[in-house]
């Protein structure tokens, strides 16, 4: 990067300016840490201040570490933008587009990288088998530093997986399964340890729940997670309310993150206000950040701090880990890598995520075959035409049809999925017939999950949730 203040900063986009400020800030810190000559440090600081001024001039916003510029289209042309139709944060997802969130724009806004064909092919070469359907179909569509994870794996260096669940209800729905289905596949093909965080503390802070009820939900949700087929010898599931008080390494990392993130930063990233509870909501991002560092689990990693973490999650969780990646080098930790998934749509359409509080927006893992059939037939948003005649003539729209969207997640056979798409688009296949395929796909899947869950006793949950050494050497 050129250090001359005379370089043409006006030609840079807001995102490019943001990246230049970030790089220059890291350079200043490195110079200070290396006790460089005062003149060199002063010149680097002047360049940093110049970049920050250019950034504010271009965006109307102060630079905030870990928070890429928002409203890019508005910044660039002063006009209202389509992006304003999409609202995404860790608690709310809204869009006015029946197709759902525009993920290409979200990649630009969040500053992540698209999972392209080259990366998918590289994953296939590394693991020696066909990539998961979630990769093949773009359900996991974005990443941060997955190439570094593959570099490590190809050089026989270990990494570990971290994902989580916010236990806001006793019963989970099928959308909650997506990260766990994919994480289980990742764990199997790469043969690595996995930690699963149950953020019962978060739900106590954000929801009208007692700590006892939040912890009860965590243990019930753990049963559904275990029923996905995770190996107890390779997986540690923990409740924040439980584990935080027993692990000094975990709490030390929380404190380190807290020290290096300002209130101004978390207000900008998460929208906190002065009325949010002290040391509760405001400090929670540090608790979600801490499992990204292997030293939070000394019983698993033997106290080692240099083991990189890979986090599969929905894209709405990315703000937590942008913050984490920004602070990691400053506390001597490797940045976690991420794989982002799209959102699982509600039955009523892709404008919002499913809601555990609305029984008709979701197919729950406790639903009977009859309930599954009724919900799909009655509530699944259709991309078909108003009449059979019109549908035969003009065909259906798979881009907005919820039944087809669900099949994209759960139907394994690529050829069968393509046949259904062509038949529905041509008008050969009617909406009721497409819903029937989905019903016949989900009923046995959920029934099998329910049978596995029956085998998950309280003793099995205790085994998964006991801090212990896993079947790996570090």
Describe it:
- The chain is an alpha/beta fold.
- It folds into 3 domains: 46 residues, S15/NS1, RNA-binding (Helix Hairpins); 267 residues, HUPs (Rossmann fold), CATH 3.40.50.620; 87 residues, Tyrosyl-Transfer RNA Synthetase (Orthogonal Bundle), CATH 1.10.240.10.
- Helices cover 50% and strands 10% of the residues.
- It has 22 helices and 11 strands.
- The strands form 3 sheets. A 7-stranded mixed beta sheet has the order 3-4-9-8-5-6-7, sandwiched between helices. It has a two-stranded antiparallel sheet with strand order 1-2. Strands 10-11 form a two-stranded antiparallel sheet.
- β8, α16 and β9 form a beta-alpha-beta unit.
- α1 runs antiparallel to α2.
- The chain is globular, with a radius of gyration of 24 Å.
- The two termini are 38 Å apart.
- The relative contact order is 0.11.
The CATH H-level superfamily of the largest domain is HUPs
Gross geometry: globular
Indicate the structural class. alpha/beta
Distance between the termini: 38 Å
> How many domains make up the coordinates?
3
Contiguous low-pLDDT stretches (5 residues minimum) are 1-7, 71-83
Radius of gyration over C-alpha positions, nearest whole angstrom: 24 Å
Oligomer: single chain
Strand ordering within the main sheet: 3-4-9-8-5-6-7
What does the main sheet amount to?
Answer: 7 strands, mixed
CATH topology of the largest domain: Rossmann fold
Can you tell me the CATH architecture of the largest domain? Answer: 3-Layer(aba) Sandwich
Number of strands: 11
What proportion of the residues is helical, as a percent range?
Answer: 40-55%
Strand content: 5-15%
- Can you tell me the CATH class of the largest domain? Alpha Beta
Our count of helices gives 22
Q: Mean pLDDT, rounded to whole units?
A: 86
